[in-house]
Specification:
Length: about 170
């Protein structure tokens, strides 16, 4: 993995950003309700970004107008789910589950209707998205706690990466 795209070129800036991100993660998780307030917005933005990237790749991949229509419907579903998460602060589990389920369904549908042979990896990922989407969508909405911990751990790891790279670069100079 190329770490250079995740860090800045300035060692001191990496150290400062790493410390700030770690402190922010600890304060937001344990001393304020900031992560509770921000989690739905973050999930909505990530869904929108992920779906836009997938839509762009799918538009370039598929030439059939029917396949493009199916992909466009999936993108509209993701945009509507993102709207409800970002603006309405709606239930994260329901809309995340809908988007995951729709992605798995679209991959299987397009694979069945428009491709001669679906690669096993794509089939396995589609089944995983379908299963996880249905589990999250119809499960007991207790996933926000796990999402908070995933966000906390991701922030801590990214802050540690910045801190490590900054300290490593500062020792070289």
């Amino acid at each position: 993995m190329n770490v250079k795209r995740w860090v800045t070129k300035n060692a001191l800036l990496n150290i400062i950003l790493g410390i700030l991100i770690i402190v922010f993660a600890v304060v937001a998780m344990f001393f304020t309700s900031l992560i509770d307030d921000f989690l739905a917005v973050l999930v909505g933005v990530l869904i929108l970004y992920w779906s836009a990237m997938r839509f762009y790749q799918d538009v370039r991949r598929y030439k059939s107008s029917q396949a493009l229509f199916i992909v466009t419907v999936e993108f509209v579903i993701a945009v509507v789910a993102s709207y409800f998460l970002i603006v309405q602060q709606a239930g994260i589990a329901r809309y995340l589950g809908i988007v995951l389920y729709a992605r798995g369904f679209v991959v299987l549908l397009i694979g069945q209707l428009f491709t001669k042979k679906l690669a096993f990896e794509r089939f396995a990922f589609a089944m995983a998205f379908l299963t996880l989407g249905a589990y999250v969508w119809f499960g007991n909405n207790a996933y926000e706690t796990q999402l908070k911990w995933v966000l906390f751990i991701a922030l801590i790891l990214y802050g540690a990466l910045l801190l490590y790279e900054g300290l490593k670069a500062s020792k070289k100079t």
